[in-house]
Amino acid sequence: MTHPGELPGQYPYTRGIYPDMYRGRLWTMRQYAGFGTAEESNRRYRYLLSQGITGLSVAFDLPTQMGMDSDHNLAAGEVGRVGVAICTLDDMHRLFDGIRLADITTSMTINSTAAILLSFYVLVARSQGANLRKLSGTVQNDILKEYIARGTYIYPPRPAMRIITDLFAWAAGELPEWNTISISGYHIREAGSTAAQEVAFTLANAIAYIEAALRAGLQVDEFAPRLSFFFNAHNNFLEEIAKYRAARRLYASLMRDRFGARNPRSLMMRFHVQTAGSTLTAQQPDVNVVRVSMQALAAVLGGAQSLHTNAKDEALSLPTEESAHLALRTQQIIAHESGVTHVADPMGGSYAIEQLTDEIEREARQYIERIDAMGGTLAAIEKNYIQNEIQNAAYQFQQTVESGEAVVVGVNRFKQTEGDTLAPFRLDPELEKQQIARVREVRASRDRVVFEERLRALEQAARSNDNLMPHILACAEAHATVGEISDRLRAVFGEYRE
Question: Please, which residues have CB within 8 angstroms of residue 450's CB and are 6 or more apart in sequence?
Fold first, then answer.
């Protein structure tokens, strides 16, 4: 239970990490976007910026996420489908053409290849004359949840963790304002977890990253202020508000009592929220506007630092420009018309909210204790414990939907017989051919001697204990592709097979 005298901005930050919360500064309004080629996505980013978003959020296609170039055999049919195709430094230049990286924050939802894509981004920012020490943004860089819930892993867990801690160490000196990881509960919830499991497994992953960084010789207060989190906003309105409060409180106590953090910024859980894609329905898609509005309001009442609102047509296709526009307006109405931003933690003191906060924190602690007893998150993943817990929760929920105990409007109740009228977004198939031609042009035009020399140096560093980031940056500068850099690391680390 929150202590009656506890205020927002005070440990354990149940009521928010800043004393005045949104009275001082609104959350960053991001709209997750990316599709086709870099030019196509650049046009969408420019449009969204013109409509009032305050931070970019980049979606990458599956080949890019899996360390494959667009002309890889396994990439056929997937180029630019669920995000933008980025193979080369040239692609990254086109993605941000006309956008000053020094003036915005960019979130990149990328994990296995995060070090490579961040290197591309840094080189683009440097070419624009940006001060890298002030460059602000986030790479998701959360590989553990890929083994648990999502699947876009490349390397086995232990070498993958080494890449992450190398990025932590490098960025501490080179990009001090950059969030080097966004530890994600979002995908855990999308896979079917409960709210308490989302908190527990996200924080268990955070513990694993922190312990790995400490073993690598970093001091907790050196890197902890740049850790960030990413949560889901699901349908149970009160439970979701309580979930964010419980997560903040539990994290603050873990950082202080378990890891001995002393910098107040190390104790503050900063998080991005995205509304729940898994709750969107292809049936009656206009109703998704209501779902997204409720979920976004829960995120704001729970004290999010950054928010993405899904578009109503995302159960059917990539969002159209019109539906992305409406999703952004949803945030702006909450921010400027609802009045909820005038009070920090408006729901604090509510009996229901306080009781749910305590309940979620207690259940999450119990999960963390079980995982600790197994030897930590990596051991729990290797034993399939976390995966099984999520699968069981998903199965139980699906049973309640099929029995009618849980109502999904338009799906198992309140159906309508007439067809839906939304015209889905269509991706031009010619874009894949254009992207393949471009990556081949880059390979043909670069300095082959320098390229080979830098890839060899990367491979040697991977076989030693050297920090990989300077070598990845050097390869990117020599126009090595995402696939080529990933392949050199595959040669040393191997690939993970479930």
Answer: 478
Report the C-alpha gap between 29 and 335 in whole angstroms. 10
Closest CA to 230 of 275, 175, 266: 275
Tokens representing residue 417 in the block: 């017989």
Cβ atoms 84, 435 nearer than 8 A: no
Domains of the chain: 140-412 (3.20.20.240), 445-493 (no CATH)
Alpha carbon distances (Å) from 282 to 272, 316, 327, 424: 26, 6, 17, 11
Residue 385's pLDDT is: 96
Asked whether 32 and 274 are in contact (CB, 8 A), the reply is yes
Q: What is the DSSP letter of 250?
A: H
Tens-digit pLDDT profile for residues 197-256: 999 999 999 999 999 999 989 999 999 999 999 999 999 999 999 999 999 999 999 999
- Tell me how far apart the alpha carbons of residues 34 and 55 are, in angstroms, rounded to a whole number: 14
What confidence score (pLDDT) does residue 318 get? 85
Measured CA to CA, the distance from residue 181 to residue 168 in angstroms comes to: 8
The two three-digit tokens of residue 367, written as one number: 């999960």
Distance CA 486, CA 114 (A): 11
Residues in the chain: 498
What is the distance between the alpha carbons of residues 405 and 390, in angstroms, rounded to a whole number? 20
DSSP H/E element including 107: strand 106-109
Instruction: Let me know if 218 is exposed, middle or buried by CB neighbors in 10 A (0-12, 13-18, 19+).
Output: middle
Calculate the alpha carbon distances from 225 to 159, 181, 260, 266 in Å: 24, 11, 13, 4
Judge contact between 133 and 175, C-beta under 8 A.
yes
Provide the residue type at 254 as one letter.
L
Q: What angle do CA 209, 215, 218 make, to 5 degrees?
A: 80
Residues of the chain with pLDDT under 50: none
Both tokens of residue 161?
A: 């963790």
Global pTM reads 0.93
Closest CA to 318 of 229, 161, 245, 426: 426
DSSP 22: G
Which element (helix H / strand E) includes 230? strand 227-233
d(CA 205, CA 142): 9
